[in-house]
Write a structure and sequence with these properties.
Strand content: under 5%
Organism: Aliikangiella marina
Helix content: 25-40%
Structural class: mainly alpha
Radius of gyration: 26 Å
Oligomer: single chain
Shape: globular
Family: Belongs to the cytochrome c-552 family.
Distance between the termini: 87 Å
Cofactor: heme c
Strand order of the largest sheet: 1-2
Number of strands: 2
Largest sheet: 2 strands, antiparallel
Catalytic activity: 6 Fe(III)-[cytochrome c] + NH4(+) + 2 H2O = 6 Fe(II)-[cytochrome c] + nitrite + 8 H(+)
Keywords: Calcium, Electron transport, Heme, Iron, Metal-binding, Oxidoreductase, Signal, Transport
C-alpha cells in the first residue's frame, strides 16, 4: 500500500508539474490540424478555461476568424441558422458552431481545411439540388467543394453573376500587369520638404558599440546598406529602430524585440503578419515559430526563427530578395523548388534585370503576399496564408491581374499544375463556366 501511495503521489506531482509549470504536452488530446498545431500547447487560446462551454469556445474561434468571415461575406453566416425557418437543419448539423465542422485533436477524420465531416456533408441541407438544378444531376455531393465549384464560407469569386461578367476572357491579358505599391509615393507627397538622409546622418555616434561582436556585425556594411535603403529615403535612421535602451548592449536587440519595433511604423503589415502562419505564435506572446517545428517541407538544417527580419534585411530592405530568395531559403517542397523552372520566374528575372516592364514579373510574393488595391492605396498583404485555403481566394487579388477568370480557375483546380508551379497550361477547362453559359442561355 505505501508503494502504491508513493507512486500515485509521484505520478500526480509529475502530471501537475507538466500542467502548471511544464509545456502541457501530456494533456494534449491528440494531433491538431495544420491550422492550430503551432499553438496546440497554448490550451487556453481555444479552451479559454478548463471545461469551457461551447459558447466560450465559439467566442475563441471568432476572436481569430470572425473578421475574415465578415470580409468575404460568409456564405453560411450564423444568422441563417438562427432563422426559425431553418431550425430543422440544426438537428442534423449545428452550423452555428465552428466545432460542428472543425473538431481538433481528431487526425483520423480531419480533411482539407481542417474539416472533420464526411466529404458529402452538403447533402444534409441541399438534397433537393438535383431537382432545383438539373445541370447538377450527374455530380456527387462529395464533389461540391472541388476547387472552382463551391466553398462553404467564401464564394465571393465563384457566384454566378461574377463568373458571367468574366466569361470568354483571354487566357493572358494584354497588358498583364500587377499594381504598384503606393506607400512611398504617399509618404513623399505628405513630406515634400524631407530630403533623403545621407551617410553622415545615421546617428551612429549615439551608440556605444563596445559590446558588439565585430566578427558578426560589419558596421561599415550596415551603414552602406542603410544609405541606399528606403529607410534613409523616408527619414528613418539608426535610432528610429535601435532605441537608447538597447544601444549599450547591441546583442540585446534580439528576435523577440524586432516585431514591436517594426510595428511602430508598419502597423497594417504587423497586424497581418500576426494573423499568418509565420507570426501567429507571436500573436499569443509565445516564442517565434521556427523552421525545425514546421510540418511543411522546409530546410530544417538550421533552426530559423520567423520574424520580420527572417524575410527582410532590416538595413538594406531589399524587397527583391524578400520576394523570392527569402522564401526559397526555407521552403523545400516540390511547388517551391519548381518555381525557377517556370515562366513566372522568367518574367520576374527579366523585370529585375530591367528587360521587362515594372509589374510584369511574378515572384513567390506576387501570389502569396499579394499587392491589393483599395481605393487609391496599394499595399502588400503580409498574411501569407490569407488566400491559400481555398485557393480560389487568389483569383481577384492575384491571378486576374494577368489571366482571364476561366483560365485562372482551371489552373487552380489542376493539382498537378500547382505541384509543378504552373509549368504549362491547365489540362482541361473547368465545367463551372459551361454550366453558367447554359444557365444564361436558358433564361433568354
Amino acid at each position: 500500500m505505501p508503494i502504491g501511495i508513493a507512486l500515485t503521489l509521484i505520478i500526480g506531482a509529475y502530471l501537475g508539474y507538466n500542467l502548471f509549470e511544464g509545456d502541457k504536452s501530456l494533456f494534449l488530446g491528440g494531433e491538431t490540424s495544420h491550422g492550430h498545431y503551432q499553438i496546440e500547447l497554448e490550451c487556453q487560446a481555444c479552451h479559454t478555461t478548463p471545461f469551457a462551454s461551447q459558447e466560450k469556445m465559439q467566442q475563441a474561434c471568432e476572436s481569430c476568424h470572425a473578421e475574415e468571415l465578415d470580409r468575404v461575406n460568409d456564405s453560411h453566416p450564423k444568422k441563417v441558422f438562427l432563422d426559425p425557418r431553418n431550425a430543422d437543419l440544426l438537428a442534423t448539423l449545428d452550423a452555428r458552431l465552428c466545432v460542428s465542422c472543425h473538431r481538433e485533436h481528431k487526425p483520423e477524420i480531419t480533411r482539407d481545411f481542417g474539416v472533420t465531416l464526411a466529404a458529402d456533408f452538403c447533402f444534409h441541407c441541399h438534397q433537393d439540388i438535383k431537382e432545383e438544378r438539373p445541370s447538377h444531376a450527374e455530380f456527387e455531393f462529395k464533389t461540391c467543394a472541388t476547387s472552382g465549384c463551391h466553398n462553404f464560407h467564401d464564394n465571393s469569386m465563384l457566384y454566378e453573376k461574377f463568373i458571367a461578367k468574366h466569361l470568354d476572357e483571354p487566357a493572358i491579358k494584354d497588358p498583364a500587369r500587377l499594381p504598384e505599391k503606393t506607400g512611398l509615393k504617399r509618404w513623399l507627397k505628405k513630406n515634400k520638404k524631407k530630403l533623403p538622409l545621407d551617410v553622415a546622418e545615421p546617428q551612429m555616434d549615439s551608440f556605444s558599440f563596445e559590446a558588439t561582436n565585430q566578427a558578426t556585425v560589419d558596421l561599415s556594411r550596415v551603414v552602406e546598406d542603410w544609405k541606399s535603403s528606403i529607410h534613409a529615403r523616408t527619414d528613418a535612421n539608426c535610432t528610429s529602430c535601435h532605441t537608447q535602451n538597447v544601444s549599450q548592449n547591441h546583442n540585446s536587440f534580439t528576435i523577440a524585440s524586432v516585431a514591436p519595433v517594426c510595428e511602430s511604423c508598419h502597423k497594417r503589415q504587423h497586424k497581418a503578419f500576426l494573423e499568418s502562419k509565420h507570426g501567429m505564435r507571436l500573436a499569443l506572446e509565445l516564442s517565434p515559430m521556427s523552421t525545425d517545428k514546421a510540418r511543411l517541407e522546409v530546410d530544417k538544417s538550421h533552426s530559423k526563427s520567423l520574424d520580420c527580419n527572417s524575410c527582410h534585411n532590416p538595413h538594406s530592405l531589399n524587397v527583391v530578395e524578400a520576394a523570392m530568395d527569402s522564401c526559397l531559403g526555407c521552403h523545400q517542397d516540390t511547388h517551391s523548388q519548381n518555381y525557377k523552372n517556370s515562366k513566372h520566374y522568367q518574367l520576374w528575372a527579366q523585370e529585375i534585370l530591367g528587360e521587362a516592364p515594372s509589374g510584369s514579373g511574378v515572384s513567390c510574393a506576387t501570389c502569396h503576399l499579394p499587392k491589393v488595391k483599395k481605393g487609391r492605396r496599394v499595399t502588400v498583404i503580409h498574411n501569407q496564408n490569407l488566400n491559400l485555403r481555398p485557393n480560389t481566394k487568389m483569383l481577384r487579388s492575384v491571378c486576374m491581374n494577368c489571366h482571364g477568370l476561366e483560365f485562372s480557375v482551371s489552373a487552380l483546380a489542376d493539382e498537378a499544375l500547382i505541384e509543378n508551379n504552373f509549368i504549362g497550361i491547365p489540362t482541361k477547362k473547368h465545367q463551372t463556366f459551361e454550366l453558367v453559359k447554359q444557365r444564361m442561355k436558358s433564361r433568354q
